[in-house]
Each structure stands twice: as structure tokens, then as C-alpha cells.
């Protein structure tokens, strides 16, 4: 993904928040390279899947491009995992457009996700769980909101990655 802007390939994700961990939003501090507690989430909701970012990218919100990594287990904070995109979660929040790539570990890392090639392969329950979480996790925070805009397919996920890689290089 990152560094492979013109190719349909795999790439890396850095996990900031493991699946089902406590309701604390972490982000990597760009200057220090340390994990920063961004906020304790008022809604008390746990991230339904592993959450992090794609290194060497710059999304439209000014941060590295967000990524949700589906796996049967929680992945350790700050772990680097080779992934392949399967789709895109498209949202808008109080700061503007907010896209999140949805990916799975590459087959050699996690054979359990081989059958997930696109969003539809995840099943309605998993998609609804992601949508519900991201529509509500900021609900009790003053002046914060999220609107679900839709799902993007694999091609749209690669477009978002290419755009974020290009923005990072500028």
C-alpha cells in the first residue's frame, strides 16, 4: 500500500488500538514516535477491530491514512502488520472528510482471512458493527460528530491510498 502508489499490492499498517481494547483513543506522536493518549472515549465503546494507520501517507484530515485491520485476534499496539485492502469506510466528521481503509492481514500472516477479498465477504454483521461503532463513538464528546457516507470498494480503497501517498510526498 504505502510506497506502492501505482500498484495493487500489499503494504503495512501500524496498529495503534488493538481490537476490543479499553475505550481509549491512542495516536502515535509524530515528533516523539511514542503512543499518545489522544482521549478517553466518553461513550465507553471498544474498537470492534484493530485500528491504526498506513505509514508514509497523509489523508485529507492532515493525519496518516486510517486503517481498520480485520483479524481473529487483537494485534499488539505499535505492531507492524502486512495487509491487503478489501474496502473503504467513508465518513465525514467535524473536521471534514474521514476515510478509513478496511484491510486484512496478508494470507501468509493470517490464513483465516484468505476468503475476505472485498467488503461483502465480511458479512452484514461485521459491516454493521463497524458502521455502528464509527457513527457513535464520538456521540458524548462536545462539538464532535460523525456522519456515515457509505462504503467504498477495493478500487476506492486503493485510490485513497494512492492519494494519501502522493499527498505525503508533496
Automatic annotation (TrEMBL):
Cofactor: Mg(2+)
Family: Belongs to the PPase family.
Binding sites annotated in the UniProt record for Mg(2+) 1: 61, 66, 98
Primary residence: cytoplasm
UniProt GO cellular component terms: cytoplasm
EC number: 3.6.1.1
Record carries keyword Hydrolase: yes
A GO molecular-function descriptor: inorganic diphosphate phosphatase activity
Binding site for substrate: 25, 39, 51, 137
One GO BP annotation of this record: phosphate-containing compound metabolic process
InterPro entries: Pyrophosphatase (IPR008162), Pyrophosphatase_sf (IPR036649)
Binding partners and assembly: Homohexamer.
Task of the protein: Catalyzes the hydrolysis of inorganic pyrophosphate (PPi) forming two phosphate ions.
The protein's name in its UniProt record: Inorganic pyrophosphatase
Reaction catalysed by this enzyme: diphosphate + H2O = 2 phosphate + H(+)
Keywords: Cytoplasm, Hydrolase, Magnesium, Metal-binding
Chain residues that bind Mg(2+) 2: 66
NCBIfam families xrefs: PRK01250.1 (NF002317)
Subcellular location: Cytoplasm
Xref: CDD domains: pyrophosphatase (cd00412)
Amino acid at each position: 500500500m504505502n510506497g506502492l502508489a501505482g500498484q495493487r499490492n500489499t503494504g503495512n499498517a501500524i496498529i495503534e488500538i488493538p481490537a476490543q481494547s479499553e475505550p481509549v483513543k491512542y495516536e502515535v506522536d509524530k515528533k516523539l514516535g511514542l503512543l499518545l493518549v489522544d482521549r478517553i472515549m466518553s461513550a465507553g465503546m471498544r474498537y470492534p477491530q484493530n485500528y491504526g494507520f498506513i505509514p508514509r501517507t497523509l489523508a485529507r484530515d492532515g493525519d496518516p491514512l486510517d486503517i481498520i485491520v480485520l483479524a481473529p485476534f487483537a494485534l499488539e499496539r505499535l505492531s507492524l502488520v502486512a495487509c491487503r485492502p478489501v474496502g473503504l469506510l467513508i465518513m465525514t466528521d467535524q473536521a471534514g472528510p474521514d476515510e478509513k481503509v478496511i484491510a486484512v492481514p496478508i494470507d501468509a500472516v493470517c490464513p483465516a482471512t484468505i476468503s475476505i477479498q472485498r467488503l461483502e465477504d465480511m458479512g452484514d454483521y461485521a459491516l454493521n458493527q463497524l458502521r455502528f461503532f464509527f457513527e457513535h463513538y464520538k456521540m458524548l464528546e462536545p462539538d464532535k460528530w460523525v456522519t456515515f457516507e457509505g462504503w467504498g470498494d477495493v478500487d476506492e480503497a486503493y485510490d485513497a491510498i494512492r492519494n494519501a501517498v502522493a499527498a505525503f510526498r508533496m
